[in-house]
Specification:
The structure holds two protein chains of two kinds.
Chain A: H1 2-10, E1 25-37, E2 43-55, E3 59-64, H2 70-78, E4 85-90, E5 93-94, E6 102-105, H3 117-121, H4 132-145, H5 161-173, E7 179-183, H6 191-208, E8 211-216, H7 219-225, E9 228-233, E10 238-244, H8 256-270
Parallel strand pairs in A: 3-8, 3-9, 6-7, 7-8
Antiparallel strand pairs in A: 1-2, 1-4, 4-5, 9-10
Helix pairs in contact in A: 4-5
Chain B: H1 2-10, H2 12-32, H3 44-54, H4 57-91, H5 93-106, H6 115-122, H7 126-150, H8 154-162, H9 167-204, H10 210-219, H11 224-257
Classes of the chains: A alpha/beta, B mainly alpha.
Chain lengths: 271, 259
């Protein structure tokens, strides 16, 4: 594949070489299923037979209609929900709960409203045995990374939606997680802010070497960001098809290859 | 000075103060022109004069101090117990299932209905008043704490979990702060109720305190002035303490919660 060679040249030093997909799986999802007891007996199957291997430093998007279980899958990787069957392992260790190296960014309203931005970012440090001054310095550094050092003492309700999500990203990065799990983090933002934050996220991802699993409704967003796009179908939630996005970054939303892939995904999604 | 003037102009407080002052002025005029009988309804200044003739400032201060002492200690304990039990009932499922029906069963009983029992159980001394005031604070606080805990955005708990928190640390670092605005509302309602039942309890069974002071004046055929001053004092005390609680609440949670 021609774009792949291209990609290899453009990718940062640390991931140069083979496309990460074929390497050792970093997140290994095997035969994961999830069902809830249904009203009036039986069970509703939300996810069935999910097998997915994600490489270290890979950026993978989960795309699909509402109800396809993409958020549930993300929550299972995060350790926030237990799978009904199958397993998820991160770096070979099975996921048994949250806080095992998964940083999570939620859609919105997940910042602690009683804490100023800098304290939201530093929230997780308290368990990490740092002095107050060290915590603050590291929180400020992370706020600087997301361009918000000036808003450090503001409370969430005093920040715009875009700023709140920047703080959320900084907070998720605070404990230096290996994996960043993002559940439609830009879904509630206006278009311009959204594009800005997409660029910001790519910059952070490339600078900080994270494995990212990103849930989105937007094919466009998935195409701008991802190495691979996993298309999920509903009833029961399952992987319908996986698309490789072999384009170099930054990607142009108007490039013919971009639009061709958009068409492919849309056709698959609506078929 | 300038800033103060601006704040006064912008605040409802200033408007309210003008209204209150106006009412007192009308009252004073009505009493002086003989529109109302000064023996039954003396003007504010006359009432103070009459009270001053009957009681020393020391007596009034002593009664006031007793009332305050009772309400602070009873409320403090009732609100603390309410907060602890409400939070625990909201957090621990089983405990909630046991505690909630009991609370709901006892909550509709007005605290004053407990007075006869309180007297039988605790006698006429301090413990019976303490008990009534305790009840006045306990139920509003326990209810609001419970509801605060049950209405926490699950997103916040999840966010806390993703940062490695669980169990008691999650409770204290995420759940309790998230429930704080509801808790604060309960504390304020509880304070008002405590204050109300304090005076009622003192009217019925006490030998000191503001409630006792006014009922004693009535029973011994003293002056209406003392009763009016007593009532106004009770109102003023409640006003000031309630405003203090409101200001403290605003200071702690106003900026992030927006109330």
């Amino acid at each position: 594949m021609a774009p792949r060679a291209h990609l290899a040249l453009r990718r940062p030093e640390w991931s140069r070489g083979e496309h990460p997909v074929v390497n050792v799986p970093f997140i290994e999802i095997s035969s994961v299923r999830k069902s809830f007891p249904a009203r009036g007996g039986g069970a509703v199957s939300v996810l069935s037979g999910i097998d997915l291997a994600i490489a270290e430093n890979e950026f993978v998007s989960l795309v699909g209609r509402s109800g396809c279980g993409k958020t549930t899958l993300l929550n299972i990787i995060a350790g926030l929900e237990a799978a009904s069957g199958g397993s998820v392992a991160i770096a070979g260790r099975p996921v048994t709960g949250p806080g095992q190296g998964q940083g999570v960014v939620f859609q919105q309203h997940a910042l602690f409203p009683w804490l100023a931005a800098v304290d939201n970012v530093g929230f997780g440090f308290r368990n990490a045995g740092l002095s107050k001054r060290q915590r603050r310095a590291r929180s400020m550094e992370l706020l600087r990374l997301v361009g918000l050092q000036a808003a450090a003492t503001k409370y969430p309700r005093e920040l715009s939606g875009g700023m709140q999500q920047r703080v959320s990203i900084a907070r998720a990065l605070a404990l230096d997680p290996q994996i960043l799990l993002m559940d439609e983090p830009f879904g509630a933002l206006d278009e311009l802010t959204r594009i800005e934050l997409q660029q910001e996220l790519l910059r952070i991802w490339q600078a900080r070497r994270k494995t990212v699993v990103f849930v989105t409704h937007s094919i466009n967003e998935a195409l701008i960001l991802s190495d691979r796009i996993v298309l999920l179908a509903a009833n029961p939630g399952r992987i319908k098809r996986i698309f490789e996005v072999g384009m170099e970054r930054p990607r142009s939303r108007t490039a013919p290859s971009f639009n061709a892939l958009y068409e492919d995904i849309w056709n698959e999604l609506s078929s | 000075m300038n800033a103060l003037a601006r704040r006064l102009r912008d605040s409802d407080l200033a408007v309210g103060a003008v209204g209150a002052f106006g009412l007192v002025a009308i009252w004073e005029i009505a009493a002086r022109t003989g529109l109302v009988d000064p023996q039954l309804f003396p003007s504010p200044l006359l009432a103070i004069e009459m009270a001053a003739a009957r009681l020393t400032a020391e007596t009034v201060g002593e009664n006031l101090a007793w009332s305050l002492f009772r309400v602070f200690s009873g409320f403090g304990l009732g609100a603390s117990a309410g907060a602890v039990i409400g939070i625990a009932a909201g957090w621990y499922r089983t405990f909630g299932m046991i505690a909630r029906p009991l609370i709901e069963l006892l909550r509709p009983i007005p605290p004053l209905a407990w007075i006869p029992l309180a007297i039988i159980w605790f006698g006429l001394g301090e413990p019976s008043k303490f008990f009534i005031i305790f009840l006045g604070a306990f139920f509003p606080v326990v209810t609001s704490a419970y509801h605060g805990m049950r209405s926490i955005d699950p997103m916040l708990l999840r966010a806390g979990q993703t940062m490695g928190l669980g169990g008691v640390p999650l409770l204290f670092r995420v759940a309790v702060p998230a429930a704080a605005p509801d808790l604060a509302t309960g504390v304020r309602i509880g304070w008002g109720l405590s204050f109300g039942v304090l005076v009622a309890a003192e009217l019925v069974a006490a030998d000191r305190g503001l409630g006792y002071m006014i009922i004693n004046e009535r029973n011994t055929g003293g002056s209406v002035g003392v009763i009016i001053v007593g009532i106004l004092l009770i109102g003023l005390l409640n006003l000031v303490t309630d405003a203090a609680i409101g200001a403290a609440t605003k200071r702690w949670i106003g900026r992030w919660h927006g109330t």
